[in-house]
Amino acid sequence: SGEWGKVETLLKDFEEKCATPVGKLKQVADAMTVDMHAGLASEGGSKLKMLISYVDNLPTGDEEGLFYALDLGGTNFRVMRVQLGGRERRIVKHEVKEVSIPQNVMAGSSSEVLFDFIATALAEFVATEGDDFHLPPGRQRELGFTFSFPVKQLSIASGTLIKWTKGFSIEDVVGQDVVGELAKAMERAGLDVRVAALVNDTVGTLAGGRYNNPDVIAAVILGTGTNAAYVERAHAIPKWHGLLPKSGEMVINMEWGNFCSSHLPVTEYDQNLDVESLNPGEQIYEKMISGMYLGEILRRVLCRMAEEASLFSDYVPSKLKIPFILRTPDMAAMHHDESADLKVVGNKLKDILEVPNSTLKMRKIVVELCDVITSRGARLSAAGIVGILKKLGRDTLKDGEKQRSVIAVDGALFERYTKFRNCLEETMKELLGDAADSIVIELSNDGSGVGAALLAASHSQYT
Ligand code: ADP
Ligand code: MG
Q: Which residues have CB under 6 Å of ligand 1?
């Protein structure tokens, strides 16, 4: 029909606006490096907050004892206990329980409701501790709290929430010390546990990654949201006025999700998504990359194509108008569909959008859109990682040096969206050339939870 030409025009136009040629990615990487410097120079000096974590020592391998961890930062929240066996026995035992957070707790509730929910889940979990976990008599249980939102840390075990991201919105927590709030809720729940460390998931992943591999220098989260942390030289942090740590190092939580640059290929779909989001004007880089948003970008493009170019013939699925109805895991399943008739795509269109009889031509457009959106996200993530490597002077090969740089990556987007992951890895090679041989991107499955437990161990009141 005459309309199909319009579908192809919209697709081509979208593709062009999303383009990330190497030259552009290098500009993005350079802008990231520049903003890192600015964020380290002064408080509020950059869109990148470059938060000081108070972690100036990463795990050594000697950590020992029973420690708990809490991981709050996405749709699920996890409680965990780890029995650490020291240098020889490493992680002796490790148990995790995942609890999903009700929508009405995540947004619009109160600090008390949120932290009571968390403390109650933790209390139930502690009650199931078996005989294979050992707490020396007379000792208090200790916990690492992974809290994956921007926090102004006041010490290793306290910090105030700067703002919510990723669909969370509970007004009265902003500005509060989240450890204090958790401690009060634990007391209400009759639970005697000390919070020994408050860490961002990036910092936890870095700690967990380092425990397994001494070459780990940075960590990246690619899950519901995206963020990164890395090890900085303490004297390269002008805004730090405290004592220089003995190690000479400090872990920095970049909060890179809030990165923004005129070099980012922002389309009108991204702009509309942003304006209608819970946090307009914020987390622009995150909104182009992470799992919470990729499916939603796809929905917006499909909606426009259905309305203006009859993508699904005369039928405009009303489901397509519901924000966030297309989730990134469904998008990945369609993108990975290898069948000749794109059966998976057809089924998803039917089940989620109630498009009963999609043609192969329609399904191919959907797959093409998945590819455009996901490639852009993966390539922009790679550019961000290169920005960190540049800041550290690790983006080029040095004569005679055999320096390896390992980036620990956690998050289901990277772990399960194979095409995203492959594209990210390919792009690293495009950007770094031969130097890519010395860079390793390593999956650190659930590293952030174990990392928080390890940091609780190194900041225990008993050591
Ligand atoms: P969080 O980031 O919340 O700590 P995860 O690392 O498990 O948790 O990431 C969850 C996010 O990853 C989901 O919001 C979803 O967008 C994305 N995701 C989960 N499974 C897949 C998948 N199979 N393919 C693509 N993305 C996925
Ligand atoms: Mg996580």
A: 73-75, 223-224, 291-292, 328-329, 332, 411-413, 416-417
Cα of 167 from ligand 1 centre, angstroms:
14
Report strand pairing: 76-85 vs 91-100: antiparallel
Expressed in angstroms and rounded, the spacing between residue 417 Cα and the centre of ligand 1 is: 9
Q: What is the pLDDT of residue 2?
A: 61
Report the CATH number that the domain containing residue 71 is assigned in CATH: 3.30.420.40
Same domain, 384 and 281: yes
Mean pLDDT of the 168-173 span: 95
Q: Quote the pLDDT of residue 398.
A: 80
What's residue 447's pLDDT? 81
Q: Which amino acid residue places its CA nearest to atom 25 of ligand 1?
A: 329
Q: How is residue 88 written in tokens?
A: 């020889």
Q: Are 119 and 186 contacting, i.e. CB atoms less than 8 angstroms apart? A: yes
Residue 206 lies in a domain: no
- Report how many domains make up the chain: 2
Compute, in angstroms, the gap from residue 339 CA to the centroid of ligand 2. Answer: 32
95 in a structural domain: yes
Q: How confident is the model at residue 1 (pLDDT cuts 50, 70, 90)?
A: low
Residues of the chain with pLDDT > 70, as a percent, come to: 100
Residue whose tokens read 């805004």? 239
- Predicted TM-score of the model (pTM): 0.96
Q: What is the pLDDT of residue 463?
A: 83
Asked if residue 391 belongs to a domain, the reply is yes
Q: How is residue 60 written in tokens?
A: 């050594």
- Whether 188 and 283 share a structural domain: no
Pick the closest to residue 55 from 179, 178, 202, 194 (CA basis).
202
Told to judge if 78 belongs to the known catalytic residues of this protein, a careful annotator would answer: yes
Does residue 36 sit within a domain? yes
Residue from 148, 290, 375, 405 carrying the catalytic annotation: 148
Residues of the domain holding 119: 54-199
- Which ligand gives the minimal distance to the CA of 374? 1
326 phi-psi bin (left φ>0, alpha ψ -120 to 50, beta other):
beta
Q: How far is Cα 162 from Cα 176, in angstroms, rounded to an integer?
A: 9
pLDDT digits (tens, 9 = 90+) for 76-104: 899 999 999 999 999 999 999 999 999 99
Q: Is 46 in the same domain as 138?
A: no
Residue 419: CB atoms within 10 A of its CB come to: 15
Q: Which atom of ligand 1 is closest in space to residue 71's alpha carbon?
A: 4
Q: Is 275 exposed, middle or buried (0-12, 13-18, 19+ CB in 10 A)?
A: exposed
